[in-house]
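Action item from last meeting closed. Structure (338 res):
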């Protein structure tokens, strides 16, 4: 069966996913696209040589009988409306992070999905499909380093544009650590705090960069995440788990060790698209396969909600510089059955 996918939002990640569905993955084709900028959507259809119709709106695309499943890759504030419309139409929907820009918005999606009675929503937390994070999880789950006690993380990017604001260090950047550490440690957060070290001269005046995010989990694990988005030297993701009897480190992406000019060196990637390329491929192939077998397995709407609640607490902690509790609603039994 070939799954007929409609894509809402043909910006950077939308184009990436369209390209991989067309050229790399199997079992699906992009038959419909839309974007706030229709000419741009039409241009992507042309560039990718798609046999796809450009729709006037996300709503029209979702309701179309020609579309089996929906990919939401528009900007964050438009996600909730599209995901709710897809649930209303009874269609599977893959939504890039954030699921919604507020915890309340995520909860409305959770409520709609529970009411529908079947999982339809997958959230684009691609690190669940990264080989290195899976190796790290295997080590933690098999108790090879004992119980995790402390986790040190870094999320470094070479530079950001002038639209990137201080809160986006949480909602756009550290959101990935917030999500993946819940999964890695099988735990939830109880409190968060944000510290501002000396500011880099490469950050624009409106932006605090770097930032340190401290989180405590229910099991008492302490986490520090260094978010540094004007680090200049590369796109660099680190995660080190300190356990009772050992330490486990997220593997670096494989690259050639070069000996030259009296130095040993390895390349550091500059681009997030390359760092998680394989994970995106596995993630979207997983979505296609699970829709084709009528059972979703990837990160759920509840994961989107949990990340949003924690991110909200971090943004509050940025403003107050105090320790802020993370208070989540009770997880509906619906998500325990997954
Ligand atoms: P982008 O390049 O700005 O693309 C967003 C696209 O959506 C643009 O073409 C934008 O049009 C369009 N758009 C805006 N409002 C819309 C609406 N109401 N209906 C339909 N289309 C609309 O951003 P991006 O980097 O692709 O990011 C898109 C989403 O993916 C964001 O939520 C982002 O956080 C997420 N993302 C996730 C990852 C990941 O690692 N999982 C990586 C990158 C991005 P205009 O340009 O005309 O505004």
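Sequence:
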């Amino acid at each position: 069966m070939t799954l007929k996918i409609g894509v809402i939002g043909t910006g950077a990640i939308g184009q990436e996913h369209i390209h991989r569905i067309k050229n790399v993955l199997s079992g699906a084709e992009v038959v419909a696209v839309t974007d706030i900028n229709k000419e741009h959507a039409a241009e992507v259809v042309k560039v990718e040589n798609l046999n796809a119709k450009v729709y006037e709106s996300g709503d029209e695309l979702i309701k179309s009988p020609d579309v089996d499943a929906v990919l939401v890759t528009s900007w964050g504030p438009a996600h909730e409306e599209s995901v709710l419309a897809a649930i209303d139409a009874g269609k599977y929907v893959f939504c890039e992070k954030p699921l919604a820009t507020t915890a309340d918005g995520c909860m409305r999606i959770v409520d709609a999905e529970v009411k529908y009675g079947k999982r339809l929503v997958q959230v684009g937390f691609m690190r669940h499909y990264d080989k290195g994070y899976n190796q790290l999880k295997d080590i933690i789950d098999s108790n090879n380093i004992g119980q995790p006690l402390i986790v040190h993380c870094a999320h470094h990017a070479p530079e950001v544009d002038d639209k990137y604001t201080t809160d986006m260090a949480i909602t756009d950047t550290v959101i990935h650590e917030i999500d993946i550490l819940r999964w890695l440690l099988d735990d939830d957060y109880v409190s968060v705090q944000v510290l501002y070290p000396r500011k880099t001269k490469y950050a624009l005046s409106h932006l605090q960069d770097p930032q340190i995010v401290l989180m405590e989990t229910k099991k008492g694990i302490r986490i520090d995440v260094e978010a540094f988005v004007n680090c200049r030297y590369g796109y660099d993701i680190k995660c080190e788990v300190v356990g009772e009897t050992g330490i486990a480190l997220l593997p670096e992406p494989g690259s050639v060790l070069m000996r030259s000019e009296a130095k040993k060196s390895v390349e550091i990637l500059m681009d997030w698209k390359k760092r998680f390329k394989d994970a995106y491929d596995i993630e979207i192939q997983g979505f296609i396969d699970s829709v084709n077998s009528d059972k979703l397995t990837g990160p759920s709407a509840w994961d989107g909600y949990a990340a949003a609640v924690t991110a909200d607490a971090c943004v509050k902690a940025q403003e107050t510089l105090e320790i802020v509790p993370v208070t989540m609603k009770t997880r509906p039994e619906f998500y325990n059955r997954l």
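Note appended to the action item: The chain has a mean pLDDT of 96.
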